[in-house]
Amino acid sequence: MINPFTDEYFMKKALQEAEMAFEKDEIPVGAIIVIDNKIIARGHNLTEMLNDVTAHAEMQAITAAANFLGGKYLIGCTLYVTLEPCQMCAGALYWSQISKIVFGASDEHRGFEKMGTQLHPKTTVVRGVLADEASELMKRFFAEKRK
Amino acid sequence: MINPFTDEYFMKKALQEAEMAFEKDEIPVGAIIVIDNKIIARGHNLTEMLNDVTAHAEMQAITAAANFLGGKYLIGCTLYVTLEPCQMCAGALYWSQISKIVFGASDEHRGFEKMGTQLHPKTTVVRGVLADEASELMKRFFAEKRK
């Protein structure tokens, strides 16, 4: 039997969140958190609407997932996020001890890998899942902004 | 005339926040944000109470200050925090473009300086203000925890 719950399957859900950010005129980044193939948290970038640099998609998803689980550690959870996390979000993920991070497009300027942010030693990382879709959405956003 | 608004003056206010965390059985870290010698935001660590790794004193103060100012950038502001910020908080401070960070005790294991987190190029840092008081509070907290 084919497993429908692939990384691509869940990244599509994160992309839907990114599209919700786009529609709100926010830089289109979306995130979901999954445990045992179940989505327990969703978030999309709301930094403009909330006037708050901390309102990244990942931060909201981390808070929501911990609220769902009733504990602050996200052991056994996977974060799917359309763009590579920044220093702040990677730092939050470090504290959460999340088991797996899957991201779409790389952020070569402000991504945590370029910036050297440390994750928890037990966290694994998968890169580039539906990266083209995530990049395309970002490019479309900034192209419209320049109009 | 003597200027009463020294870094020590404001750090004492941050220490009061740290004491509030202590009383709630939280790791005692406190923060305030100041603009033009006026305190516009306060926060203390609430990670246990909120079950949320993102609920550091600095994160709450950043969100509160932006809310007060009606904008997400903290240009012209100073953060006073009793303990050196972590990667997450330093990453948030990077996005905020805050003008100055004053911290008390260094965190040699998980502080942003050891971890290599980048601040905004316009942010200046002052270290070690009332560091002994901040360290003493932390030591007392962990000593009581071990009992």
UniProtKB/TrEMBL annotation, chains A, B:
EC numbers listed for it are: 3.5.4.33
Q: Which GO terms describe its biological process?
A: tRNA wobble adenosine to inosine editing
Coiled-coil annotated spans: none
> Known Pfam families for this protein?
dCMP_cyt_deam_1
Catalytic residues of the enzyme? 58
Keywords associated with the record:
Hydrolase, Metal-binding, tRNA processing, Zinc
Q: Which InterPro entries match?
A: APOBEC/CMP_deaminase_Zn-bd, CMP_dCMP_dom, Cytidine_deaminase-like, tRNA_aden_deaminase
Required cofactor(s): Zn(2+)
User: Can you quote the record's cofactor note?
Assistant: Binds 1 zinc ion per subunit.
A Gene Ontology molecular-function term?
tRNA-specific adenosine-34 deaminase activity
The UniProt record lists the CMP/dCMP-type deaminase domain at: 5-115
Does the entry feature the keyword tRNA processing, yes or no? yes
Summarize where Zn(2+) binds, as residue positions: 56, 86, 89
Q: Name the top EC class.
A: hydrolase
Describe the protein's quaternary organization and the partners it interacts with.
Homodimer.
Any idea what job this protein has?
Answer: Catalyzes the deamination of adenosine to inosine at the wobble position 34 of tRNA(Arg2).
Q: Which HAMAP family would you find in this protein's record? A: tRNA_aden_deaminase
- Assigned protein family: Belongs to the cytidine and deoxycytidylate deaminase family. ADAT2 subfamily.
Name assigned to this protein: tRNA-specific adenosine deaminase
Task: Supply the source organism's classification.
Answer: Bacteria, Pseudomonadati, Bacteroidota, Flavobacteriia, Flavobacteriales
